[in-house]
């Protein structure tokens, strides 16, 4: 809900005081999140009376770009901004990077200042000298082109270099011609700020990509090669500084095309370089693209293609956000396509789970399909591939294939006659060849620098026994005994389903050459391919193989164990799909690989969500009996306790009243054992002999006596007096639960306290990763006490147990006993137990 009226005017005035122009200020107010962040930043910086615009611009950047996992350090950063120790956008960006890495941990001030260039001054003379040195290299660049092509037209070479500089720098503007001033800027005092119409830098607005992470993707109609760029490429002027044979040159060409060309120029462009020097320029013809657009109506078509060989984890949440999110943002469609090409690893259980979890995550598939739906099409195209001379039947063992690929050696059957391969492939299909005795391989480029062009396998046999029995497939039945590989099927089914954007994680980047090669030789429509960084979270494993191992060997309690980063496990733990999607969106869609996202960043989004949605209740994990001696035995007072801390007093729905079960207060209450000590200290706010503490929503109590066990150390019971007038004001506030009626125990519940599953941040990199399992990742409290209002809680309901954390009702709950899982603690405890 957008702020209005008098409140809006006050916020507008506050934003104008820090130097925002009125248009920017009003646009900011229209965004609730940015408004709240900027208001908080201004107050943290103690600049409610105003500041100069330079500092104001930096405050705006802090409000819009500051890393959420390091909020603890934001006040310290603002001290540097206000004192002008950090005064440029570059320094601010450097501080964000530094603080996002340290997150909530302590950092050394000297290291921070070095990372952010605090105290470093660069003079105008130094900048001028460096610019002159850099531009002297332009002449060397033209000389390099003449050296490589001595007979080329120098005028054409210069025009092309100029064109590249234009693409990089754009049009010259009046601002470019302004000479930098050598005068030192005078610092203005906040109290004397005046809103004058002067030419200043505009605040650092959130980038289009930050506001809309899907803006980086081209439109479907742009998926065609532009003639002008084709001529440049054919003219030999390289689009990359790397050698043509470099395995990553394809990636650089592609990114250049998609991110830097504008208008009618090409936005989707890939070149595959072969070892013989030839170049495959992958693109759609105008006719092929027009046919595609006719089928799709010009809409975006994506697909989420999980393999049904396990439960989805949080990495798949990012994939769903990218695939479904792009389609939703562009008004298009997203398939849920099961990549079911391996019948031995796939189960109906996994298929059912995936469909359910996709819906729980808030996504609605346009259509649910299976790669196996296209088995006949894939087979016929494989036959065509052989006919065109681009595939052959191979009889090498898997070990021999691996060895020869490592040596870049051709298979002895690579050049067998086409008719022979056709006959053998038919025998494979009919089950006349045993498993392991033959495969169909694509004839690609065994001398390429890209190992994913080493004649990849297109088809393999799965357990055929001479026409008697085929390995059953969970969706296709027992019709087939040959199954296509991922490298063969994936790109073809993308094309058959008219996918506009084929999006996958970076480990598939080197497969792009094979993807386009296959579609090219079969004359099929070619989708736009783009890879993004996979999501890795600390203190867990994301590999399906490792997950399957710890599930199968019972290191955890199934695929939905709340300690796992499976989406089923997170849901059972009490994490909401909206919190997960918020976490993923905050990470963004980037290509920065090898990044490990800290667990506390996810927990931040979980707390943000549950703080708004989880009602507060009183639960005591380790009860210690307190007998209140000045309250009549048997008397019970019904107290009002807020479900929401910020609720207004006249909002009856915000309190636990009799209609949902009272919060009883009697002469027997229970507090946490940890909230009582025999010896008091200045920094301790709990209960101690002769000391008072306030019972939340109730009364102050004072400890008057302690009942000890025979060992004279173990505390069995406390005697106390309460202050019905509430005149005493103790500092400590305790949560508690009372006997609901004389002689009857409070509601008894089981509470499961979950912690990180592995001690190390990246257990997957350890050789003996199983030894890194945290033995305290699950602690069961079998007999906690809870207020009566929890009695009717249902599976999946979430609550904040005051002072303890957020908890959710587990599926193991029964009518006799509720079971609660701790979703997350109230505060970040990530770094406190070590790593």
From TrEMBL:
Keyword Nucleotide-binding (UniProt): yes
Matching Pfam families: tRNA-synt_1c, tRNA-synt_1c_C, tRNA-synt_1c_C2, tRNA_synt_1c_R1
Reaction(s) the record says it catalyses: tRNA(Gln) + L-glutamine + ATP = L-glutaminyl-tRNA(Gln) + AMP + diphosphate
Gene Ontology biological-process annotations: glutaminyl-tRNA aminoacylation; post-embryonic development; reproductive structure development
Domain Glutamyl/glutaminyl-tRNA synthetase class Ib catalytic residues, every copy: 300-611
Transmembrane regions listed in the UniProt entry: none
A single cellular component GO annotation: cytosol
Gene3D superfamilies in the cross-refs: 1.10.10.2420, Glutaminyl-tRNA synthetase, non-specific RNA binding region part 1, domain 1, HUPs, Ribosomal Protein L25, Chain P
EC number in record: 6.1.1.18
Region of interest (Disordered), ranges: 172-211
UniProt entry keywords in alphabetical sequence: Aminoacyl-tRNA synthetase, ATP-binding, Ligase, Nucleotide-binding, Protein biosynthesis
Domain tRNA synthetases class I (E and Q) anti-codon binding: 733-810
PANTHER family: GLUTAMINE--TRNA LIGASE, GLUTAMINE-TRNA LIGASE
Similarity comment text for this entry: Belongs to the class-I aminoacyl-tRNA synthetase family.
UniProt-recorded name of the protein: glutamine--tRNA ligase
Record lineage: Eukaryota, Viridiplantae, Streptophyta, Embryophyta, Tracheophyta
